[in-house]
Amino acid sequence: MTNQLDTRHRTAPRIAIIGAGVSGLCMSIQLKKAGIFSFTIYEKSNGIGGTWRDNTYPGAGCDVPSHLYSFSFEPKTDWSQKYAQQPEILQYLEQCARKYGIVNHIHFNTQIIEAYFDEVEGVWRLCTCAGEIIVADILISGCGQLNRPRYPNITGLDTFEGTKFHSARWNHQHDLAGKSVAVIGNGASAIQFIPRIALKTQKLYLFQRSANWLIPKADRKYTHFEQWVFHQFPVIAKLYRFFLYLQMEKNFGGFFKGSWLNKQIEKIATKQLFRQVNDRRLQEVLYPNYPIGCKRILISNDYYTSLQSSNVEVVTAPIEQVTSDCIITTDGQSHPVDTIIFATGFEATSFLAPMRVEGLLNMTLETVWKEGAQAYLGVTVSGFPNFFMLFGPNTSLGHNSIIFMIECQVSYIVKCI
Known about the structure:
Blueprint: H1 2-10, E1 15-18, H2 22-33, E2 39-42, H3 51-54, H4 86-99, E3 106-107, E4 112-118, E5 123-128, E6 133-136, E7 138-141, E8 163-166, E9 180-184, H5 190-197, E10 203-207, E11 214-215, H6 224-232, H7 234-249, H8 260-276, H9 280-286, E12 298-299, H10 303-306, E13 312-315, E14 319-322, E15 326-329, E16 334-336, E17 339-342, E18 356-358, H11 365-368, E19 387-389, H12 402-416
Helix pairs in contact: 2-12, 6-7
C-alpha cells in the first residue's frame, strides 16, 4: 500500500473538467499556471463559452461592468462599452482559450451523463453519452447554473402548430417581422430582447407572472482615449476595476429590508417606472408587489418604453392552456399567436442535472441534496472524494461579478490539488 501511495504522489493526477464555459476556462488556465497540465475538458457542444455561446438572442449582454466581468489575470483594456454584449464577451473567452493553449485540452461534442467514484481504485469513472468510459483522479464540474433552459408545463403546449423556442436557443432563421408573438416570462433575458423585437412584430403579448424591480443601466461607450489610457497604464485599469468592484459590492446592503440603501434603490426603481410609463394601468401592472431585493434586481433603460408601443400588450392573467394557434388565459381571453418565445430562465437549482454523480457507499448527489443543495464553500460535498464544483450551491451573486467568486473557488481547488 505504501508503494502504491508513493507512486501516486509521483504521478500527475488525471483531472477531468466538465464544461468549457467561464468556469472551465478559468480552472484550466490556473492549473497551467500552477504547472499542472494533466487535465482534460469535456464539453458537450462544439465550441467554448458556455452560457455566452448559447445565449445569442437579440440584445444579449451582461449586467456586470465589462472590466469586472473578466478574469483578473487577463484584463481586456479595449472593451467597447461599460456593459458588454454577448459577441464581445464570447470573443474575449475565445481569445483567453487560444492565448493559454486551452483548446488542445478540450474534447468537444462529449457529454458526460454519469460519474461514479470507484472506491476500490480510488478514481472517478465518467460515462459519456456515446458509451465511452473515462477514468480520472480528480473531477471538477464547471457546468454552472445557466446551462439547462427551463420550459413551462402548460396544458396543450405540444399541440401548438406555430414556431416556439427558448430565448437561450434562439431561432435566428425565424423572422419575427409581421408575426403575432407571445413572450412567456419577463426576467433578465426578456428585458433585453423585447426592446429589440417589439417594433418588428405585428403584435407582441408579454405574459407576466410577477413584475420585476428595474433600475437604470448606466451604460455607455468607452472612448478611444479611455481605451488607450487603460492599455498604456495598466495600473489605472486595475484601479478602475477595483472601483467597479467596490461600487457593486456596496449594493449588498440593498438586500437588507428596510435599510437606508434598500429604500434608496427602491426609490430609484420607482422613479424610473413612473417617469418612463405614463399609462396608469400599466404602472400598476409593472409595479412589484414585494419588497425590492427579494428577487433579482434587473437593469434596463428601454424595457419600459418598449412595453408602451401600440402593438405590445402585457398580460397578467395566468395561462390556462395553449391551442394550435392561440394562448387562453384563466380570465377566458384568447390571444392568437403564431410564435411563442420562452423567457423562463434556467434549471438553476438542479445542479449538474441531468448528469448523475455517485460518491461513496453508492450515494448520489440527488439523494444528498433532496432537502436542498449545499456544499462546503459551495465547492465540495462530504462523501464525494476529489470532486469539486465551480459556481456551486449558494455561490451565485445578486450584486457583483460571479467571475470573482469563480476565481476564489478555482484558487481553493488548485491549492487542494
